[in-house]
Amino acid sequence: MKLSLGPAQYFWPRDRALAFYRAAVHWPLDIIYLGETVCSKRRELGTGDWIDLASELAESGKQIVLSSLALIEAESELGVLKRLIEHGDCWIEANDLSAVQLCRERRVPFVGGPSLNVYNHAALAMLCDDGLRRWVPGVEQGAALIRELRDAARTAGLGLPEIEVIAYGRLPLSWSARCFTARAHDLPKDQCGFRCIDYPDGLPLATRDGAPFLRINGIQILGEEVTDLGPELPGLRELGVDILRLYPNADGMADVVAHFDRARASSLPLPAIGARNGYWHGEPGMRRAG
268: pLDDT confidence band, cut at 50, 70 and 90? Predict the structure, then answer.
């Protein structure tokens, strides 16, 4: 079972981001995803910087994947996507169907990101024909749905791509044309001042009763709870999951990777270090289940 470092969802200063990835390349990871998936205005690292960093980290022997935006709204954002794909040396994580289309046209292998919304084996087979090599199920797609899809594909005589499950991190729940961080500071989106850089793990949002609820991350909303499927590893193996995705935190990520490296080397589940795994069991995502 492989370990991947998912794309950083938060907006970090340039020096911090570069230092993070140059440290991560020495961790026991097999795959590293690079790129901006949330907001095209976040330009501490530009498109050329991500491509240069990908070339630098690829010298380690790890697979480097360039991730695309989950919400493409402008011609300029489409231009960035084309530059990533035309780079040619890396797979692309397609988080939007426009990325699927361009990868298909240029015959570039791609990873189906969690925002593609694939719910049946026929759709997965169609994407495989387009060049899909790896699939990351959506955050709410738990063990039962993945098993049903796997069994249906086998019954139909269809092959499956690699399956990569989000095993650790705050789950990306939604994206919007509006910027929630700017709104929280009473700023227009086009004059946001890049305030999300002040929140390296997102801006906490509580209920009216003061209970922690969500994390605001620019135009993205994340769950407050850190999902951890470490205790589910025996079931993940039985299901045929190939890769565990770990979403970056601002601090302590080396210890998280080491924890999952120990877990995949053991036949027994390790104690949870995160808080929730409800979606995996078909229950509300904020619930500890199983």
Answer: confident
Q: Which of 39, 44, 110 is nearest to 70 (CA)?
A: 39
Residue 64's alpha-carbon distances to 51, 88, 181, 226, 287, in angstroms, are 10, 12, 30, 25, 33
Torsion angles phi and psi, residue 236, rounded to 5: -65, -40
The DSSP-derived string for 216-246 is: EETTEEEEEEEEE-GGGHHHHHHHT--EEEE
Condensed to tens digits (0 to 9), the pLDDT of residues 51-99 reads 999 999 999 999 999 999 999 999 999 999 999 999 878 999 999 999 9
Of 41, 91, 49, nearest in space to 69 by CA:
41
According to DSSP, the β-strands at 220-228 and 212-217 are antiparallel
| Domains within the chain, CATH numbers bracketed | 2-172+226-281 (3.20.20.70)
Which residues make beta-bridge pairs with 163?
135
Rounded to whole angstroms, the Cα distance separating 189 from 124 reads 36
Given a cut of 90, is residue 289 above it in pLDDT?
Answer: no
Which residues contact residue 187 at a Cβ distance below 8 angstroms, ignoring those fewer than 6 apart?
193, 195
Please name every residue paired with 165 in a beta bridge, in sequence order, or none if there are none: 244
| 128, two tokens | 């495989």
Q: Left, alpha or beta for 151 (phi > 0: left; psi -120 to 50: alpha)? A: alpha
CB atoms within 10 A of CB 15: 9
